[in-house]
Structures are given as structure tokens and as C-alpha cells.
Task: inverse folding
């Protein structure tokens, strides 16, 4: 199978294809990554891969602290990820296509990227200033009855949004245009729902669109029922306006 090698940016969250990813880059290992990406011609794609962290820390500790105030501070590209970073990450991630990289006066970066396609992590290289990975592209197969499932998911998602709006005593934005292409629907709903990282990861690595939509339909019905029963549950600001893929 054809593979591609890209810089690797582990996060405590899941990036889905089509979704926008804003980043505040301040650690030296990721500053080095951005400086390297800036060397790429503007006519060429500037890309890196995002994987969710399974066991580790998104930001490396910069000073000794609890429980051991004398502990040595970790440094380098694998800081916070243990001796074998491949085991610290979920195996399915998403390629991010960089739209803008702006360097600040202090050397940090403001980055805006968009998820493009899924990839499977084959290996991780920690020999440079930042992690790179060998990645296998994962095709998105529609599966059976994806169109009908997408219609059902959109109906349930609207009910879910209404329940969230009621729980937060906010008005649901009207006139929101939601997509109808099954693959886009599956990723949009996965990103917008209030779910923990393992559940979002499960949705990302679903074998096909229809499987993802079936899982989402069950989740939407369950979460909507919970919100109806416990309307005081905290909610993200998902109902201020339409969720956009751009």
C-alpha cells in the first residue's frame, strides 16, 4: 500500500475531514514543525497529520511539579508520550491542510488548517526536532443505505440541537443549512456532538460512512434522551449559529 510521510501533531481531540482546526503553536517542537512547513512553496500543499492522544499529555511539562517536585522535565519531540510514542496515539488520524501560518513576535504561531482525509498510523519517527509519521491513506466507503441513514441522522441531530438550546435556555439559530451528502453529514455530526475523545475516535475510524451514521443515530437518540431528563447538563456553544465545515 502507498504511504506518505508527514509531520505529526498529536492532540487531545479528534480532527474530522472537512472540519476547521485553529491552533496556537507555542512549544518548540511544533514551532520547528511550522518553520519547516513555511519552507514549502505556497504552490505546494502544506500538510501535517493529526492523531488523538491515547495515553500521554498534549503539552509537555515545563517545570517540576506534583507529585514529584524534583522530577526531570521532559524535552524533545516525544515529551509527554513515553518511550514508544506509537503506543501513545490512536492509530487512525486525519491529514490537516494548512490555510495560514502566522508567526507572532514571540516566535509562536497562529495556524489555521482543515481536515482532509483519514490516515492510519504505520510508524513514528522521533529522530528530528518534531515527530514525523509514515501514514497509510484510508478510503471512505459509503456502505449500505448511507443516504437513508444520513436523512435520519440529520432529523435526530436537529432534535439534539433543540434539546441543547433548551438546556442552555438559548434560542436555536434558524435558517441553518445542513449538508445532505452522507459522508459530510457523518463527519459534521461527529464533530458537533458532545462526546468524549474515545467515542469521537470510534466514529472517525468507522469502517464506512453507513456504519458511522448508524452509530451516530444511536448516540443522538441516547444523548437527546439524557438531555431531556437532565436539562441542566453543561453544553458546548453549539447552538449559537449553524455549524460550518468552512
Result:
Amino acid at each position: 500500500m502507498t504511504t506518505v510521510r508527514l509531520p505529526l501533531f498529536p492532540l487531545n481531540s479528534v480532527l474530522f475531514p472537512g472540519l476547521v482546526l485553529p491552533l496556537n503553536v507555542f512549544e518548540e517542537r511544533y514551532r520547528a514543525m511550522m518553520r519547516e512547513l513555511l519552507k514549502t512553496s505556497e504552490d505546494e500543499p502544506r500538510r501535517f497529520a493529526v492523531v488523538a492522544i491515547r495515553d500521554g499529555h498534549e503539552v509537555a511539562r515545563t517545570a517540576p511539579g506534583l507529585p514529584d517536585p524534583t522530577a526531570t522535565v521532559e524535552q524533545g519531540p516525544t515529551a509527554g508520550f513515553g518511550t514508544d510514542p506509537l503506543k501513545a496515539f490512536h492509530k487512525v488520524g486525519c491529514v490537516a491542510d494548512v490555510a495560514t501560518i502566522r508567526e507572532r513576535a514571540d516566535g509562536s504561531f497562529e495556524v489555521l488548517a482543515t481536515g482532509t482525509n483519514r490516515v492510519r498510523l504505520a510508524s513514528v519517527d522521533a529522530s528530528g526536532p518534531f515527530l514525523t509519521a509514515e501514514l497509510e491513506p484510508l478510503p471512505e466507503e459509503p456502505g449500505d443505505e448511507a443516504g437513508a441513514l444520513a436523512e435520519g441522522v440529520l432529523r435526530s441531530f436537529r432534535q439534539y440541537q433543540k434539546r441543547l438550546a433548551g438546556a442552555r435556555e438559548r434560542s436555536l439559530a434558524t435558517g441553518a443549512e445542513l449538508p445532505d451528502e452522507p459522508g459530510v453529514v457523518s463527519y459534521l455530526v461527529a464533530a458537533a456532538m458532545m462526546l468524549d475523545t474515545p467515542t469521537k475516535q470510534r466514529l472517525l475510524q468507522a469502517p464506512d460512512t453507513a456504519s458511522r451514521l448508524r452509530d451516530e443515530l444511536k448516540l443522538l437518540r441516547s444523548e437527546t434522551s439524557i438531555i431531556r431528563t437532565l436539562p441542566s447538563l453543561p453544553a458546548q456553544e453549539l447552538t449559537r449559529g449553524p455549524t460550518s465545515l468552512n
Notes: Residues 144 and 210 are 6 Å apart (CA to CA). The chain has two domains: 4-58+76-137, 146-169+177-229. The domain at 4-58+76-137 is CATH 2.30.130.40 (Archaeosine Trna-guanine Transglycosylase; Chain: A, domain 4). Residues 60-64, 171-175, 233-246 have pLDDT under 50 and may be disordered.
